[in-house]
Design a protein that fits this description.
This protein is an all-alpha fold. Strands 1-2 form a two-stranded antiparallel ribbon. Helix 2 crosses helix 7, helix 3 packs across helix 5 and helix 6 packs antiparallel against helix 7. The longest helix is centred in the C-terminal third of the chain and has 45 residues. The radius of gyration is 43 Å and the shape is elongated. It starts with a helix and ends with a helix.
Length: about 300
């Protein structure tokens, strides 16, 4: 139980490290290494297969050439060939050394050229294929995998967005505090219009994704939200409204606007139906009164009029 508790505490500590910017690069490198292990295994399998095919081809060609008694090579060359390509395993090792910098592939080519035939050609094809195709495929695979792993997770995005909102809120609060000339903690329409006339302030807002074209309309909109059409608006509410104006409208904003429009239409329809019902009742009563008046004798109908 205590060991499990220690592991749980360690996991919480690592979770804290994830939220610290100083460790983000190191964590990203560890994630890329651990996330690329499966890709590494498949890349090794591909390299092993390619080296095996070409090593088998070269060893078979060398075996046929070495059995020829009229071969134009010395005993030292034969011994070196057997040391480098005496078996398929040794041939694979020599090919890997030639492509990974363990040995100059030009030296190996000069050694294989003594045998002639298709063996040197096969070796050159292997070098060209490995240098131009195999390594590029392996590199692109690892890069693609690393790019996928490097994408920030939801927690990191939320943390960065929260920190950016805090920074923007502090900067806007300081700007609007300087704009509040009477130090009342509120912003009037005149104060907002005066600061919006400065191109530097408008550029500052645009850089942060806040584009206010009409200061008067924006101020009236905030007054309608706070349900105060005459008084000034609290500075913190102005900052919050500016932050909500950041960027373009998202799909959620459009859906919320559509939902609010439907609610308003439903309320309006309900009120119109109620007004229609009341008008119908009034019409029925007026019709009944008119019919009742028409059924009365003419002298009785004139009586109230003369009395009036």
């Amino acid at each position: 139980f205590m060991r499990s508790l220690r592991l749980f505490k360690l996991a919480k500590i690592l979770r804290v490290f994830r939220s610290i910017r100083f460790f983000s690069e190191l964590r990203l490198m560890f994630d890329c290494v651990l996330g690329s292990l499966v890709s590494l295994i498949w890349c090794l399998a591909m390299v092993f297969f390619i080296a095996y095919v070409f090593a088998l081809l070269i060893v078979q060609g060398l075996a046929a050439e070495l059995r020829d008694p009229d071969g134009a090579y010395s005993a030292e060359s034969e011994a070196e060939l057997l040391r480098e390509f005496g078996s398929v395993g040794l041939g694979m090792l020599s090919l890997l050394k030639s492509t990974t910098g363990g040995r100059d592939w030009g030296t190996v080519l000069d050694l294989l050229a003594l045998c002639g035939g298709f063996v040197p050609v096969a070796f050159v094809v292997y070098i060209v294929f490995f240098a131009l195709a195999a390594w590029n495929i392996v590199t692109s695979l690892f890069v693609e995998r690393a790019l996928k792993i490097a994408q920030p997770d939801v927690e990191t995005l939320a943390l960065e967005q929260n920190m950016q909102d805090i920074v923007d809120a502090d900067e806007l609060t300081s700007i609007f505090a300087e704009m509040d000339t009477d130090k009342s903690g509120t912003i009037s329409m005149a104060e907002l219009q005066s600061v919006m006339k400065h191109p530097k302030f408008r550029s500052y807002l645009r850089v942060r994704g806040i584009d206010i074209q009409d200061a008067r309309f924006f101020y009236r909109m905030m007054q309608s939200v706070v349900r105060d059409t005459d008084g000034d608006i609290d500075l913190r509410f102005v900052v919050s409204a500016c932050l909500r104006m950041k960027g373009v409208a998202t799909s959620m904003d459009l859906h919320a606007l559509t939902f609010e429009s439907k609610l308003l239409n439903k309320k309006h329809k309900h009120h119109i139906d109620g007004i229609g019902r009341r008008l119908s009742v009034i019409e029925d009563r007026l019709t009944a009164l008119l019919e009742e008046r028409l059924r009365q004798p003419p002298n009785e109908r004139a009586g109230p009029a003369l009395a009036a």
